[in-house]
Amino acid sequence: MDAVERLRERFPDAEERSSTEVLAPRAVNAHTHLDLSTMPFTPGAYDAFIVAAIAHTRAGGRGVEAARRGLAALRASGVRTVGDVVADEAVMALLLAEPELSGVAYWEVIGPDPADAPRLLDQARERLQRFLSWQRPGGMRVGLSPHAPHTVSAPLLRGLVQVARSLRLPLQIHVAEAPGERALHATGTGPLRAALAGALRDWRPSGMSPVAYLDDLGVLAARPTLVHMVEVDEDDVRRVARAGCVVVHCPRSNTALGCATFPWATFARHGVSVGLGTDSLGSSPDLSPVEEWRAAVAMHGGAASPAQLVWSAVKGGARALGMRPETVRRGDPFDALTTWVAPVH
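Above: the chain's sequence. Below: its structure in C-alpha cell form.
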C-alpha cells in the first residue's frame, strides 16, 4: 500500500484534488540574527559585510528595537519557530517572554584572545544560568553560540562546550562560511585575516580546516548545529556525519555575500540532516524560510528535489534546533499549513 492509498484509507471522506503544490507544516527559520534587523541589506563582498556589521553594532544598532522589527518580519512570514543568535540581554528577555514563539535563543560569545577565556567563560556561565530562570514552558529555550572557530579561542571553545553540556544547552556555531576562512585556519593569511586584523592579532591558525579544527578540539562531539558550511570538502562532511551534527543552509545570504555554493549532494551522500535559515536582514532581503526554500530549489536544480528541500525547511529545521517537527492534525486551522509552490524556470 503506497502513501496515497494509506491516506485514502485513513481519511475516506476527504476530497481529492490534483495539484503541483505541496501542503506541509509551517517552516522553521533555523538561523537568524533578529537584533541586526535595522542593518540595511548589504550585499557585496563578505569581508566588507563583516566590517559593516561590526560598525553597525558599535553604533548601537544591535538591540531590542531591531529585534522587535525582526519579530514583526518573522510573524509576517508565518514563522513560529526560530533559531536566533542573541548578543543583548534585553533581547534575550524579549524572546523568552514571546507568547507565540518557540525555538532556541542562542547566547553569542566572541573572544579570540586566549587570555580572555577565563573571564569570558565565567561571565557566560553566570548569564546563561540567569537566562535559564527566565524560560517558560512551551516558549523559547536558551542556547549557546560560540560565534565561529576563529572568533573564539581554543580554551574558550572547550570551556563553552563544557558549560553547554553541564546546563544541557543546544549549541550553534557559524562554520566555513567566508571565502577566506580555510586559508585563515590553514596559514593565518587571506582577506578574512586582513578584515579582522585587530580582533585576530592574538589568534593562531591550526593548520587544519575549520571543521577539522572543531573536531580536534572535541567540539563536534557535543553535536552543535553548524551554520553555513559552504567552504568544506569531503573529509569535513564525513566528520560532521560521524559526529551526528545538523547543518543549516542559508542560500540567499551566501549568494549575497559572494560565498561558495552549498555542496548539497555531498551532504546528502553522507546522510547529514540539513535545515534552512535566512541569516540576518543585513545579508538577506527578508526572514522568510519559504523564500529561502525557493532560492535553494533554484540554486541546486536536479541535485535536490523541491520535496527534499521542503523536508529541510520543516523537519530539518526542527532537528537543527533539537525539537520535534510541528505536526498538523485533522481539525487544526488551515493557517497551520504552508503552501509550497516551486519556482518555474
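The chain has one domain: 23-323.
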